[in-house]
Amino acid sequence: MMLQIESLEYSVGEFNLGPLSFELEKGGYLAISGPSGSGKSLLMELIAGLRRAKNGKIIIDSANHTFTPPRERPVGLLFQDYALFPHLSVYDNIAFPLRIMKKESKVIDSRVKTLADYFSIEKLTGRDVGTLSGGERQRVALARAIAYEPNILILDEPLSALDEDLREEAKQTLADLKKMGQTIIHVTHNRNEIEGLASKSIALFQGFIKSEF
Amino acid sequence: MRFNNSFNLTYLIFALLGGIILIFLIAPLLGLFFSLKAPQLFSTINDSQVSNSIYRTLLISAFVTLIASLFALPLAYILARKRFPLKGLIEAIIDLPIVIPHSAAGIALLGFISRDSLVGSLASSVGLNLVGSSTAIGMAMAFVSVPFLINSARDGFAAVPVRLEQVAETLGASRYQVFTQISLPLAKRSVISGLVLMFARGMSEFGAVVIVAYHPMTTPVLIFDRFNSFGLDYARPVAAIFIAVTLLIFILLRIYQKR
Questions:
Q1: Which residues of A touch B161 (CB under 8 A)?
Q2: For A160, which of A25, B28, B90, B152 is 20 to 30 Å away at the CA?
Q3: Measuring CA to CA, how many Å separate B25 from each of B15, B247, B254?
C-alpha cells in the first residue's frame, strides 16, 4: 500500500475530523469529495503534514509519517490557486525543489527540460509566472509538484480554477499522470470531474466518511 | 444632478483644505532655499566640519540600520506570522520610541549607558566610554528609528501569502529556507522601504542624539550648534545642504517604490 490512514483524528475549533481509516494502493487515484466544511481540505493538509494529527497514523510507503514535517514527507501538493512563486520564473519554479535538494545544475536542467516537454511548457520556461494563463499555470505547478518524484501527489480542486474548455485538456493531463504510475489524491467538491479518473472514491460529510467505493 | 454637484463641491473643498496643508509643508523649505546666499552656501559646502558631520551622520545611520536589521527582521517575521501571548504588548513596546519625546528617550538612553550603569561600567572596564561616542550616537539613532523598519517589514511579511510558504515546505524547504528564498524576497519592497525609512529617520535624529553625544557632532546637532552660537544665517546653509541630502534619499525611495 502506498498510503494507509489509520483512525486519523483532528480537531479545529468545534469541528472534529474522523476517526478516518482508508488505504490507497501504489499507482492508485483516490478522489476525496464532499461539500464545503466536510473536512476534505483538513484531511489533505494532514496528509501533506501542514497540520498535526491529534490521533491516529499516516503511513506512506510503509513508513510512519504521522508527525514528520512537510519537507520530509514524500508528498507533493498542488493547491487550488497553484501557489506559484511570483518572484521566480517558470524554470526556477520547477527547479525549486531540486535546488533545495542540492542537485547538480546539470541534473536540474535535464529534469526541468524533461518535465517542460512532458507538460508542453518548454517555450514558457523563461517566462514570468504572472504572464501565464490558467491552464499554463496549472501545468507549471504540476511540473513543480512532481519534479522531486513524490510518492503521492495531492491535488486540491485542480480543475475548478479553469475555464470549461481547458478542463478536458487538464483532465487528460491528470489521466496521463495516472498512466505514468503516479499515486494521486484528488480533492474536489464536484464528483462529476473525477469520472473516468478515480480508481477509488471517498465522500466526506461533516468530518466523517459518508461513502467509500 | 444634485448629487453630482455636491460630490464635486465636496472634492473642491477637500482639495482646498488639502492644498493648505501642502503649502504649510513646502513653504518653509522653499523659503529656506530661496533665502540662501551663494557665497555662504559655497563656503559651507567647503567647510570640513560640515562635510565631516554629514559623512559621520550618514555612516553611523547606515551602519546601525544594517546591524539593527539582523535583529529587527526576525522579530518582524515572528510578529507577522505567529500569534502568542502579550503580542499586543510587544507591538506597543516597538511603537514606544515613536510616541515618547526623543529628548526623554535620550535621557533614558544616557542612564542606560552612563558609567554608573551596568552597560556603561562593563564598557568602561574594557576601556570604552560610551557617552559622547559614535556608539552612543548609533544607539540613539537606532532607538528612535528601528520601529519604522520593524513595522514596515512586518507588514511586508504579513502580505506574503502563507500558502506560498506552505507549498515551499511541501517541496522540501526548511523553515529557514522558506524565509530566505520565499518570504524575504517577496517582502523585499517593504523591507527595503523600512531600511531606508530607518536610515533616514536615524540620520535626522536630534533630540536623543544631542543628550547622549553632543560631540562628535552629527549634522542635526551641528545645525543646532551653529544656530545657538552664531545665529540663523550660519545655521541655514548647513540645514539646506542636509535637507537636500535627505530629500535625495526620499526621492530615490519613491522612484524605487514606483518601479
A1: 83
A2: A25
A3: 15, 13, 18
